[in-house]
Amino acid sequence: MVSKQHVWFDGRFVPSAKAVVSVLTHSLQYGSGIFEGIRAYKAKKGTAIFRLQDHVRRFFNTAEIYDMRLPVDRKTLTDAIIKTVAKNKLDACYIRPFGFYNDQRIGLNPIGKKVSVVVAAVPFGNYFTNKEKGIRCSVSSWQRINSLIMPPEAKGSGNYLNSILASMEAKKSGADEAILLSHEGYVAEGPGENIFLVQDGRLITPPKEADILLGVTRDTIIKIAEAEGLVVEERGVHKEELYTSDELFFAGTAAELTPIVSVDSRRIGKGKIGPMTRMLLDAYDNIITGSNEEFSDWLTYV
Fold it and tell me: Is the pTM here over 0.90, yes or no?
């Protein structure tokens, strides 16, 4: 159980139940924390953390964007992540580094407030319970945040209120997940996932300019597709292209590759996992389990 796990908290391990802060903590009150989501898998040579350095790099980029002065460097955080997985004796897990203002003084401005860093690792299965059959999505009435409002390239806690609103709306309408559009009306992403379309044998995904998070799994899929000789297009995607796509899927650390079989009650393709999605999913599985030597440098063994 999660309550029995140990977390790395400012340089030492403590039981997760004892890793407590005040209810007035700045990042709890104002959403001023930053985080990453990382997966570790049971691979052929042992437990392997997937693309650890890329996630750590993005964590520090987020801190820079939000001008948060972290009390750790990249090596310290990297070591803490590896040690946390080992400490909890997990073959496979979801890892959550979290930086936050550990200060209970009331006031928006966090400058000068103490920053703490926590690393947790917990058992984790499929993010979507019906992932194998594919999920149903709806286009949200909420727009994706943009750089004039909040930095979409950062994984800041407050950013995800936008995602939460969209996801709740989708579930209340009977869908499994939402798809958000950019402020210019182009397809952006899911609440916590990037999106890919397959059309006429081409793999298409929204570009950076669509206010997306530059996902590590998104980059993984693009590199796998290119290695397989597929045509990959990063371009603006109109909403109606979702309805006429041959295949559609989400990509993200939690969601991994999750097929989408309908959008706004319109069936996508044949309403089941398509051949390109299946090929990419199989290739992804081979990489994370250490069966593909070409991408072995993406695995950090514990």
Answer: yes
Show Cβ contacts of residue 192 under 8 Å, excluding neighbours closer than 6 positions: 160, 163, 167, 252, 254, 255
Task: Tell me the C-alpha distance between 195 and 276, whole Å.
Answer: 14
Closest CA to 189 of 97, 255, 266, 281: 255
How far apart CA 144 and CA 191 sit, in angstroms, is: 9
Q: What's the token pair of residue 256? A: 């991994």
Give CA–CA dist 150/264, Å, rounded. 28
Q: Does residue 75 share a domain with residue 25?
A: yes
Does the annotation count 4 as an active-site position?
no
Look at the chain and report how many structural domains it folds into: 2
Catalytic residue among 75, 155, 208, 239: 155
Total length of the chain:
302
Q: What is the pLDDT of residue 131?
A: 86
Sign, CA dihedral 131-204-219-42, equals positive
Rg (CA), the chain: 19
Give yes or no for a contact between 186 and 237, defined as CB atoms under 8 angstroms apart: yes
Q: Which of 273, 246, 245 is nearest to 259 (CA)?
A: 273
- Residue 292: predicted pLDDT: 93
Looking at the DSSP bridge assignments, the partners of residue 117 are 99
CB of 194 within 8 A of CB of 212?
yes
Give the model confidence (pLDDT) of 112-128 as tens digits: 999 999 999 999 999 99
CA distance 3 to 224: 37
Q: Are residues 80 and 143 in the same domain?
A: no
Domain that holds residue 45: 2-122
The CATH number linked to 195 is 3.20.10.10
Beta-strand relationship, 38-43 and 12-15: unpaired
